[in-house]
Each structure stands twice: as structure tokens, then as C-alpha cells.
Amino acid sequence: MLKSIAVITSGGDSPGMNAAARAVVRTALYEGVKVWGINDGYKGLLEENMFEMKSQSVSDIIQRGGTFLGTARCPEFETPEGRKKAYDILVKKGIQGLLIIGGDGSLRGAQKLSAEQGIPIVGLPGTIDNDVWGTDYTIGSDTAANTIVEAINKLRDTASAHSRIIVIEVMGRKSGWLAMVAGISGGAEYILVPEETYDLDAICDNLRTRYARGKRSSIIVVAEGVGSGTAIGKIIGDKTGIDTRISVLGHIQRGGSPSVEDRLKASRLGEKAALALISGLSNIVFGFQKGKIVSIDLHDAVTNIKSLDPDYLRLAKILS
Amino acid sequence: MLKSIAVITSGGDSPGMNAAARAVVRTALYEGVKVWGINDGYKGLLEENMFEMKSQSVSDIIQRGGTFLGTARCPEFETPEGRKKAYDILVKKGIQGLLIIGGDGSLRGAQKLSAEQGIPIVGLPGTIDNDVWGTDYTIGSDTAANTIVEAINKLRDTASAHSRIIVIEVMGRKSGWLAMVAGISGGAEYILVPEETYDLDAICDNLRTRYARGKRSSIIVVAEGVGSGTAIGKIIGDKTGIDTRISVLGHIQRGGSPSVEDRLKASRLGEKAALALISGLSNIVFGFQKGKIVSIDLHDAVTNIKSLDPDYLRLAKILS
Amino acid sequence: MLKSIAVITSGGDSPGMNAAARAVVRTALYEGVKVWGINDGYKGLLEENMFEMKSQSVSDIIQRGGTFLGTARCPEFETPEGRKKAYDILVKKGIQGLLIIGGDGSLRGAQKLSAEQGIPIVGLPGTIDNDVWGTDYTIGSDTAANTIVEAINKLRDTASAHSRIIVIEVMGRKSGWLAMVAGISGGAEYILVPEETYDLDAICDNLRTRYARGKRSSIIVVAEGVGSGTAIGKIIGDKTGIDTRISVLGHIQRGGSPSVEDRLKASRLGEKAALALISGLSNIVFGFQKGKIVSIDLHDAVTNIKSLDPDYLRLAKILS
Amino acid sequence: MLKSIAVITSGGDSPGMNAAARAVVRTALYEGVKVWGINDGYKGLLEENMFEMKSQSVSDIIQRGGTFLGTARCPEFETPEGRKKAYDILVKKGIQGLLIIGGDGSLRGAQKLSAEQGIPIVGLPGTIDNDVWGTDYTIGSDTAANTIVEAINKLRDTASAHSRIIVIEVMGRKSGWLAMVAGISGGAEYILVPEETYDLDAICDNLRTRYARGKRSSIIVVAEGVGSGTAIGKIIGDKTGIDTRISVLGHIQRGGSPSVEDRLKASRLGEKAALALISGLSNIVFGFQKGKIVSIDLHDAVTNIKSLDPDYLRLAKILS
């Protein structure tokens, strides 16, 4: 059993990372294990920017967005030399295992560190995009989806007032999960995702017909992976002749106080991951499959591509 | 295959009932089936207060709390004569199947109607308490949990400012699910649920010790099934000598615009339930088990008692 | 005393327009005066798209964003012929006075209609920009400022996590009011408004110094009237070498359920404006000066330029 | 000119107290004046629980509810001996002036301290009740009104679903301001305030008539100063025979992230109060009259009774 572990957040922040780190810290202390917090991701690790954590270190953070540990880009860690240096620092500090919370880029880095240096690594999927293979859920995705739906509600007000079309570009380079879930929940008329082809001419014909019949508002959600919402909105406006506005939500999708779903699942994952790491397990990522917590092979998680639940695609068609 | 169905909401309203009814209506129309909306629950049914629905009948409702169909108590329906009358009205209207969205009381009524009159019935669990057997999820429970957590955040502000203890009574007569999920997510110090005994003396001793050490706020969430939050808060205030305030959240827990989770799951359940009813299935309730949609025997759903996931009890201890 | 009036919303919608229209309708009915609602602004007026309103016509709308009456652009109304036609329609309908809710463009149109045709006109300032001369307040400005501050809170989370600078472009072509009020309330480090010059080099030097000392986040609010937030953000990123992200909030600023301030002030203005119009007054706009409702000459309101309270400029410096 | 001042929060906390304290601190530092923060109100003062503040001491607090300085009851300060002791501590610390943020009870205490010991005192009205004489505004009142309106929106959902009457008890022992402003903004059917008599029989008759005509929801807002919402709700339910539910909002009204209005006005008041105290002024409270910042004699502020704007009473009648 490990006696000292460290928790680190890396890559883009997501709401719920604090809840996960809090659960890791409190579980470790509950088990009598020393736990370090590393500031600013791998960059902080290479700068030995870390501190030993007490229970109070994670008080009053479960409701905060972002990550109190900080995160940063770190090119040096992408080199074998950088990872060797990171390993030496962990050894020097007496840290026997590393718990990493981040997206697939960050998990990939952790996997290399483990493969090269043999230090135990357990990962948690922290990204709003919900695009990590092997888990139905990633920390922050529910809060981000709710943030987008709140924006859709606001945009619907002004769209209806003006009989406009509004095109909303949301995050999701490789995955349309956010666009699909927020679009269905926001009652969007169309949802464009990278996983599915679409016929812009057909969409524009249909929009023209429905507005001619008196329809007063349409929300079209576009995942950034499909292309620029601005460009697509321009085409739709030109083809339909209907007043069309574009909204690129950007980084507000990453922030905000985490939802119950994110606080709870992040807390549950944090506990399980801490227990696993302490028990000596390594090279795994914890996530949810069919509502149950599962451990996924770290290598599989970072090499496979997650696909979108076809139920969503069908549901979007029926409900719109 | 059925040619005409009706959708009804009954019992206490919950956020997401509108999303579910919307999915039922649009799925039926998509399948070319006539669909009626019955107003004000079984009372409206006995008064023939119903209307045929079009796709626009459910526009602009997915974001609304409550139920646009309305709901009401109906003692007459609790009698065999009342249910016979209800059946005759459905037959007269050419309605071949009934889709009911409500809590277990409402589902029990539907089960009797089906058993006595043989009309196809499919149910959806609509209650914020998440206490329907056979499903991990009920429509409205996620929104209610988020509403409670928002209240906890506000109460934490004023608790910290005054070094107070705040006792929050939340809904849940038979089930501690809401209290547990909201309590863990809100970082509550103690969570009292009907499924578990508690030692108020031990709690008060512990609170005294922690406040003596400088702790500035404690949130104690009490499920109404445990007893009156007011009474429990009074005891805690007296035993600890610490300034203790009580908040009984009441009906605000039932309202509010549904969360993404509730909109999405309600929509998915609505589609599946409509398809099942149209295909002639009966005496089933649709819900989620381990993240997947499942159908539960209606009789089992209304006779068995749901228990609370022990993971929550353990997690609450470790994190508080 | 007039016996029949009409209410119309025009130009960009703003939260609280519904509250104002509701107050106009209920005040007129309370006074025994017939009141019409005109759909889709001047366009609807020219299409005779209007209906007589009852008290229930404005039920359940005070909490809605946008305008239930709708609004639209109308080039025809910008011509004397168009305005003559509008006048003839009003006369035909027996409408003796027009109450217009809109921004200064819309008020300008109303002023011409009144000048050319002599029909009584009373205006209310409905715009989130708070840029109408003669009034400290315009309907929707408080809700928009709160929407921006909520966005700043979300962006602050992710800015702190990454030690980033975030540049937020907000609405306000001629006026920096929204940027200034939201920036001060959001604790923004810099606020760029059209009313004031700024030294980007000095700002960048200062940012470099503060980040070198460990500052972790900066929010820079830019009113669109100053220039493109994207362009300014690019310059700041290049000059400082600090990771800088841009957020263009766009139309979400126009939507959302109105705040108490907007509901209350819009209701108070609606009552006063309706009473004034009914009593035969014309060519005035109602607004707030120093917390009191005042009437402003319509011609003055649309010809003078409002300036920004210098207190805000000073306060922003001291508090940042 | 004073060289060292202290800021203290006392009595019930209210959202925006942090924004005010932040403005006091930053203004003092901007003027080159030393500024102390006193923890836990007069109790902390008597315990010498205070610290010198830097600009960073008030970073990241403008968006927080409650008061980071803390507040507490302090019987000892209510005695001349206690106030003498407080004065001696201030002198010992070299503190030449005290800036107090609190309700009228707290201001009264400060006024006595000043009268007995001659130390300069400047006050700011911090209370959600908006019941301090001489100012149209108190810090926290706008946020509390918005919190109540959000609750009304949630309660309206479930009231409409069930055709219920809902009685909401809100804060305000002496003043009906909160009830009136939130009630008008929430579209309440009736608003009961201590400043005005009411006829419960007439209200019940009217409710019966309207429900008989098909009305589906009524919200009745009751200021606690009028009496128990629970008792009044019971009477209404009995007299009308309509299903009536009661909601006692309680302490959630005190918490929450402050609104733009509260952040901005608290910041403006904080600056002005700090400048006045530093310049040697004393025995004044800063507030708003007709939208302008004014200074009120401290003795007048704590001895006179504020009345409710009759416009609100009239408006409530016309709009409901």
C-alpha cells in the first residue's frame, strides 16, 4: 500500500475538478495516506511547485469552477527528459503514486510517464467535451451542457422577438456530445456534429418553408468540430434570406459552479481512484459505464476514439 | 399497433414532466398515431377534459417547470366505479392506450385501471423524490437536487458569516435520495436520511468540538422522512449552544426550469414509452438502470420498496 | 381623454419590455380605456397585424425575456408615405394614441410619425445599452449587466486556472455603460469604453508586471464601440506574451428573464406612460432621473447624446 | 486627515457587504491610509481580532455572499463599559476612525460608541430589508428581492400545475419593502405588508371567484412583520376551500452572490464612506436618495422610521 500520493490537474480546466481533487484528498487522509497537491499541472511538477494537503486545504471548493490547483501547458513534459525529471522530483518528495485529472492529452502524458518510469498512475477524465474513450461521462460535461442550454434559452428569447435564426457554436472538436445533449435539451431545430453528415441545402429549404408558415425562431447548434459557426451561419442567412445571427459561446462553457451531477460523480470517481492508487493499482482511468464506476486501461483510454450514442441522433430528429 | 393514445400527468408535479410529454406527443405523431392530452390528471379524465395534440401543442415547453397538462387529486378515481367510468370515457374517445407520468401513487392507480379494465397502460416515473422501485432515476430528481444545492450555497454564505449551524429540511418522506445527493454535493457536514439511524448526541458533541476549534459553518441536511427539521434543529441548538437556524425548503424544490439531465432523460423515456405503448405493450414502467433504459413490471414498480445506494452513505462519511 | 390606445415594441428587444407592455395594458384597462397590441413593430402596424388586449393577454409574461409582441425592421416606415399609411391604419382602427417601447432609433421613427401626422405619441426607452438621453435608466440594462457579470464569473474560473488574460467584448456601440457597470461589478482589471481614451501599451506593461508578480487572472471588458474585442485581445496577447483568450458575448446579452430592477422599473414606467398618453399628453419619453420618474421631450431624447457618469471611470481605477 | 481606519461588519449579513468592504479597503490604500479589518463584528473588536489589510486581502470577494469579515452578536458592546473597552482597543491599535457596515441595530451601537468616546464613525446601511431611514437603498436588498422572485417563479410552476394558492412568507419585520418589490416583480396576486391593512375575507372571496372562473395559480406574498405566513395560509385555505400551500423562505434570502445593483452601489458607497471618514467626517451614514449618494446624520438614521413608497401600493393594485 502506498504511503504518499500526489494529485494534479492538467489540460483544460472543467467544473468538478475541484470536487474530484477534494474527494481524492479526503479519501487519502481518511486512509492515513499522505497526499500532495501539485500546482499548475506538469509545469508546476517540474518546478517542484507542490504542497502537502490537509482536510481544510479542500474546504469550500466543491462549489467552485475551474481548478484550485491550477493547470498550465508544459512542452518540457512532452520530452522523455522532462518526464524523467518529473519522476526524479516525485521520488525526491517521497511521492509513490500520481493521480491525474485531465483530458485525453493530459492522460496521454501520464501514460508515457508511467510507461517510461514505472511510477503508479491513476487517471480521472476531466473535460467538458465528454470525449474520453471507455467512459460515458467526463467531469464537467454536465455543467457545460447546462451552461449551453441557459445560453440557448436567452438566445431563444431574442430569436422569437425578431423571427430570427440563431446559430450557436459550442465546444467539441472531435466529439458532438455537448452539441447533441445541449441541443436536444434546448429544443434546437438542428444540431450539427462531426459524427454525422448534414445537408445544408435541405436544412435551408426546410427553414424557408417553416418560416413562410409563421415559425418565429430556430436554434441551430454547431459543434466546433463541424466547422466555424460563423461561416455556417453566414451561409444559412444567405441561402434562406432569413435574418440570422451567430453566437460563439467560447470559454464561458468551461466555467461556472459545477452541477450536482458533476459534483457527485467527480466525488465518487475521486474516492475510487484514490483507493485504487493507494492499493498499488496503476495505468487505469476511472469512469462510468452504464451508471456504474469502472476502471479502464489507461492505454486504451488514450488510444481509442469514442463514438456518439446513436440514440441521440435519432432522438434529435424525432423531437425537433 | 395502437392508432390513438393519451398522455396524462398525475400526482405531484416535477420538472421534466413537460419534456417527457413533449417526447410522447412528437414520437406518436412521428409514428402517425393520434395522441390526446388529458388535463388535470385523473380528475380531468373523468371530466372528459382532454384535447387532441399537434406538434405545436408541445412547442416552447421543454424549458418549463411544472406540467402544462396540469394535475389534481381525484378521490373518485380511487374507486372501481370511478376507474370504470374513466375506461368508458377512453373507449368513447377511441383512445386505445394510456401513458401516465407520475409518482408511485399515480402509477398504482394506473395499474388498477389496467388490471380491472384491461386497457394498455405504460408509465413513466415522475417525482423529485427518486423513490420508484426498479429505476435509478425519476423525472425531476436532478433539478430538485440542484435547487437544494443552490439553497445550500446561499445558506452557507450566511452560516459562515455568523458561525452558525444551519439545518435544512428537504423533501423525501420514504427516501433519503434527495437529501443524500444534495447533501454530498453541497458539502453538508451531516445528512440525516430515513434509511439510516443517527446519533444526535454524537453529532452535537462533534459539532461542539469542531466549533471550539474555529469551524465557522455547518450544514445539516434532513430528509423530511426522518422527522421535522425544525424539531431536530431546536435540539441541536440546545445541545450544542451554537446559534442554529432552520430552513424548510418546501415547494420550491418541485419547481424550476428542468436541468439538462432531466430534459434529456425525460425525452428519452418519453420516446421509448410512446413506442412501447403504440406497439401494444402494457403494464410496464420505463426507467433507467445503470444508465440504460429498461422496462419494469408496473406491479413490481408500485409494490416494491427502493433502497438507497450504500455508496452514498459511505461517501458522505468520508467527504464531510 | 383618449378612449383607445395601442402599444408597440420596436428595434432590438430587451428584457423587461414585456413587463412594461403588461403595465401599459393593465393600467389602460384599469382606466377603462381600450388597448391594442401591435405585433412585430412598425412592420406589423403597416400590415394591420394587431389585436385588442384583455388583462389575461398579459398574464404569465412579466418573467419572460424578449417581447411577446414581437419586433421587426421596417424600411417602409422610414418613408413619409409609410408613416402616413401607418397613421391611416391607426385612425381606421380608432386608435387615438401610440405607446412605443424601443431604443432611440425606434423613438426617432415615432417622433417623425407624431410630427408629420399629429397623433399623440408617448415613448419608453427599451434597450440594454442604457444610451437614451435624459434618463439614467433604460429597460433591460440591469438584466444585461447581470448576464455579463455571470459570464465574467465563469470566465474568471477558467482564467485563474490557466493564469490567462480574458478579453470580453460586450454590447454598446455608442455607450460604455454596460461595459463599465458590468466591469466594475465583475471586478474587471480593465474596462475600455468609447467615452474614454486608453493606452494599450501601458495596460500591457502593467499586465506583464503583475503576472510576473504572480497574478493569475485578468478580465478586460471591451465595449464594442471601442473596437473589436478579438483584435484588441490579439494585440494584448502579442504584446504581453501572456496566454490571452477572447470572448464575444453577443446576443445572449439581450435575452434572459428580467431582473427585479427591470421588472419593477419597467412596470412603473409603463403605468406612468399609459396614464400620460390617456390624458392626451404627447411627444414625451418617460425615464428615471435620480431615482424619480420624469418625462423627457421626445425630440430632445432622440437628438441629444448621453454621456457616461464620470464616477464610474474614477471608481473603476480605484477598485481594479 | 486620518492615517489609520478600520472596517467592521455587524448584525445580519447581506449580499454586497464584501463589495462595500473591498471598496473601503482599496480606497483607503489608494489614499495612502492604513486600513484594518475587524473580524466578527463588535465581538471581534473586543477580542482584538483584527488584521491590517492589503489590496489582495479583498481580491476575489466581490462576487461572494455573506461577509468575509464575519459578524456576531455581542451583548458586552451594548454596555458603556464594553464600548469604552472597544475604544481603548482602537486607540491602542492606532485606529483613528471606524467604518461600520450593518443594519440599524449595528448603526445604533456605533452611534453610541461615537457619542460616548468621540471617535469618528461613518456607517453604511447593510441589510436586505431596506428599512434604514434616509436612504432609498440598503446593501443586499436587490439581491434578496431577486432571490425571492426566483423562488416565486419556482412556486408558480407547481401552483399552476395543481391549481393551488401559494403563500410565501418573506423577511421584513418592520418594513414591507422586500415583500412589495418582490411581489410586484413576481406578479403576485396579493402582497401583505405591515405598512398597510388588509381584508382577508375580501381577499378570500375574490380568490374563490377567480378560481371558480378557472384561475390556476395565485401567489400571496406576506412580509413577516404582518404575521406568520403559515397562520395566514391556513386561514386562506380554510376560507376558500382551495388547496393552499405555504413557503417560508427564511435565510436563503440573506445569501447568494450579489447582483450588479448591489455590487455597484455597495462599491460606490464604500468609496464615498472611506473618503469621508479619512477626511475626518463623523456621525454620518451614506446612502442613496433619488439615485444620488447622500450622507445622513447617524442619529437621524437610527431614530427615524422609514415609510414605504405609496407608488408601490398603488402599482400592486393595478397590476395584480
TrEMBL record, chains A, B, C, D:
Pfam families: PFK (PF00365). Substrate binds at T127, I128, D129, R164, M171, G172, R173, E224, R245, H251, I252, Q253, R254. Keywords: Allosteric enzyme, ATP-binding, Cytoplasm, Glycolysis, Kinase, Magnesium, Metal-binding, Nucleotide-binding, Transferase. Mg(2+) binds at D104. Allosterically activated by ADP and other diphosphonucleosides, and allosterically inhibited by phosphoenolpyruvate. Catalyzes the phosphorylation of D-fructose 6-phosphate to fructose 1,6-bisphosphate by ATP, the first committing step of glycolysis. Homotetramer. This is ATP-dependent 6-phosphofructokinase. It comes from Propionispira arboris. The lineage of its organism: Bacteria, Bacillati, Bacillota, Negativicutes, Selenomonadales.
